[in-house]
Amino acid sequence: MRYIRYAFLALLAIVLIAVALANREVVTLQLLPAELSALLGLQERVSMPLFFVVVASIAAGLLIGFVWEWLREHKHRATAARREARIRELERELSKVKGQRDQGKDEVLVILDEKRAS
Questions:
Q1: How many structural domains are present in the chain?
Q2: How far apart are CA 7 and CA 16, in angstroms?
Q3: CA dist., res. 19 & res. 41, Å (int)
Q4: Model-wide pTM > 0.70
Q5: Looking at per-residue confidence, does 83 or 51 come out higher?
Q6: pLDDT reading at 36 higher than 90
Q7: What are 14-32's pLDDT values in tens digits?
Q8: Among 54, 44, 45, 49, residue whose Cα is nearest residue 26
Q9: Average pLDDT, integer, range 63-68
Q10: In whole angstroms, what is the distance from residue 74 CA to residue 31 CA?
Q11: Residue 70 lies in a domain
Q12: Is 113 helix (H, G, I), strand (E, B) or coil?
């Protein structure tokens, strides 16, 4: 399975390098359309290779998607944490009750009772 993953990563790297070499032209990016930027006085422009724009856009989309999912799943993580805390509390209470129940018994009988219960 590890070799399949390495082969996939190598193939992905080859494709990305091919796309980068095919799109080396420099493009100019503007923050806003020309009329709106002239109105607001924000005429910021950046020149960079096209492949960088494509890769940065993909990375930004992935980052936004990961953050969105993390925020969306917060309620599920919180519920799981509450349940785990409740389970630990019940396990402590159960061990305390078992200790009180088995207080005067012989150790061998306690072990046999535990085996029979499970």
A1: 2
A2: 14
A3: 35
A4: no
A5: 83
A6: no
A7: 998 898 888 889 999 988 8
A8: 49
A9: 97
A10: 33
A11: no
A12: helix
Q: Is residue 63 part of a domain?
A: no
b/e map 38-70, b = 16+ CB within 10 Å:
eeeeeeeeeeeeebeeeeeeeeeeeeeeeeeee
Average pLDDT of the residues of the chain: 88
Q: What is the pLDDT of residue 118?
A: 66
| Alpha-carbon distances, residue 90 vs 17, 71, 86, 106, 111 (angstroms) | 56, 30, 6, 25, 21
117 in Cβ contact with 97 (< 8 Å) = no
42 phi/psi in degrees, rounded to 5:
-110, 85
Q: Which domain holds residue 106?
A: 75-117
Q: CA 63 to CA 42: how far, in whole Å?
A: 27
Report DSSP letters for 37-73, one per residue: HHHHT---EEEEEHHHHHHHHHHHHHHHHHHHHHHHT
85 lies in a domain? yes
43 and 7 fall within a common domain: yes
CB-based contact 59:33 (threshold 8 Å): no
SS3 30: strand
